[in-house]
Amino acid sequence: MPDVAFCFFNDWQVVPKYAWTGQLADCSDIVNDLKPRYNEKMLAVAHVLNGKTKKRACYGVPIEAQTMHIHLLARHAARGGDGRRARQDSDEVGRVLGLLEEGSG
After folding, report:
1. 51 contacts 21 by C-beta, under 8 angstroms
2. Is the pTM of this model over 0.85?
3. Quick one: which of 72, 74, 60 has its CA closest to 10?
4. In the chain, where are the structural domains located?
Protein backbone atom coordinates (compact mmCIF):
# COMPACT_ATOMS: atom_id res chain seq x y z
CA MET A 1 0.00 0.00 0.00
CA PRO A 2 1.41 3.46 -0.87
CA ASP A 3 2.25 6.01 1.81
CA VAL A 4 -0.20 8.53 0.34
CA ALA A 5 -3.12 7.88 -2.00
CA PHE A 6 -5.70 10.04 -3.75
CA CYS A 7 -8.97 8.79 -5.15
CA PHE A 8 -12.39 10.31 -5.79
CA PHE A 9 -13.92 7.23 -4.13
CA ASN A 10 -11.85 7.23 -0.93
CA ASP A 11 -14.73 8.60 1.12
CA TRP A 12 -17.12 5.70 0.62
CA GLN A 13 -14.95 2.82 -0.59
CA VAL A 14 -11.28 2.98 0.30
CA VAL A 15 -11.10 4.77 3.66
CA PRO A 16 -13.78 2.72 5.45
CA LYS A 17 -12.44 -0.58 4.11
CA TYR A 18 -8.78 -0.05 4.97
CA ALA A 19 -9.46 1.79 8.23
CA TRP A 20 -11.60 -1.18 9.34
CA THR A 21 -8.73 -3.58 8.72
CA GLY A 22 -6.25 -1.33 10.54
CA GLN A 23 -4.22 -0.46 7.46
CA LEU A 24 -4.57 3.34 7.64
CA ALA A 25 -2.91 5.82 9.97
CA ASP A 26 -4.98 8.02 12.27
CA CYS A 27 -4.88 11.47 10.62
CA SER A 28 -7.00 13.20 13.27
CA ASP A 29 -4.18 15.57 14.28
CA ILE A 30 -3.82 16.82 10.69
CA VAL A 31 -7.57 17.18 10.22
CA ASN A 32 -7.96 18.97 13.56
CA ASP A 33 -5.32 21.53 12.54
CA LEU A 34 -7.27 22.17 9.33
CA LYS A 35 -10.73 21.98 10.93
CA PRO A 36 -11.59 25.68 10.45
CA ARG A 37 -11.27 25.16 6.68
CA TYR A 38 -13.77 22.30 6.53
CA ASN A 39 -17.54 22.22 6.40
CA GLU A 40 -18.31 20.34 9.62
CA LYS A 41 -21.11 18.28 8.03
CA MET A 42 -18.78 17.00 5.32
CA LEU A 43 -15.93 16.24 7.69
CA ALA A 44 -17.78 13.26 9.15
CA VAL A 45 -17.08 11.27 5.95
CA ALA A 46 -13.44 10.70 6.94
CA HIS A 47 -14.34 9.86 10.55
CA VAL A 48 -14.62 6.07 10.42
CA LEU A 49 -14.16 3.03 12.64
CA ASN A 50 -10.96 1.00 12.91
CA GLY A 51 -12.14 -2.58 13.37
CA LYS A 52 -8.97 -3.68 15.18
CA THR A 53 -8.72 -0.86 17.72
CA LYS A 54 -12.47 -0.18 17.85
CA LYS A 55 -11.49 3.50 17.66
CA ARG A 56 -13.36 5.98 15.48
CA ALA A 57 -11.01 8.61 14.02
CA CYS A 58 -10.11 10.44 10.81
CA TYR A 59 -8.28 7.90 8.69
CA GLY A 60 -8.22 10.18 5.67
CA VAL A 61 -7.61 13.87 5.04
CA PRO A 62 -10.45 15.36 2.96
CA ILE A 63 -9.13 17.61 0.20
CA GLU A 64 -12.18 18.06 -2.01
CA ALA A 65 -15.97 17.90 -1.94
CA GLN A 66 -18.38 16.93 -4.67
CA THR A 67 -21.99 17.78 -5.39
CA MET A 68 -24.54 16.14 -7.59
CA HIS A 69 -25.28 18.09 -10.74
CA ILE A 70 -28.76 19.40 -11.42
CA HIS A 71 -29.76 19.10 -15.05
CA LEU A 72 -32.46 21.20 -16.69
CA LEU A 73 -33.72 19.60 -19.88
CA ALA A 74 -33.73 21.93 -22.88
CA ARG A 75 -37.36 21.11 -23.66
CA HIS A 76 -38.38 22.42 -20.23
CA ALA A 77 -36.17 25.50 -20.45
CA ALA A 78 -37.60 26.45 -23.82
CA ARG A 79 -41.27 25.83 -23.11
CA GLY A 80 -41.96 29.43 -22.10
CA GLY A 81 -41.77 30.77 -25.66
CA ASP A 82 -40.93 34.31 -24.58
CA GLY A 83 -38.47 33.02 -21.99
CA ARG A 84 -40.73 33.90 -19.04
CA ARG A 85 -41.21 30.25 -18.02
CA ALA A 86 -37.50 29.52 -18.48
CA ARG A 87 -36.69 32.43 -16.14
CA GLN A 88 -39.21 31.11 -13.60
CA ASP A 89 -37.63 27.66 -13.76
CA SER A 90 -34.20 29.19 -13.37
CA ASP A 91 -35.39 31.22 -10.37
CA GLU A 92 -36.80 28.05 -8.80
CA VAL A 93 -33.52 26.16 -9.32
CA GLY A 94 -31.69 29.10 -7.71
CA ARG A 95 -34.12 29.06 -4.77
CA VAL A 96 -33.61 25.33 -4.20
CA LEU A 97 -29.83 25.68 -4.44
CA GLY A 98 -29.99 28.50 -1.89
CA LEU A 99 -31.94 26.28 0.51
CA LEU A 100 -29.41 23.48 0.06
CA GLU A 101 -26.54 25.87 0.71
CA GLU A 102 -28.20 27.17 3.89
CA GLY A 103 -28.63 23.59 5.11
CA SER A 104 -24.96 22.74 4.62
CA GLY A 105 -23.54 25.83 6.32
Report:
1. yes
2. no
3. 60
4. 10-58, 74-104
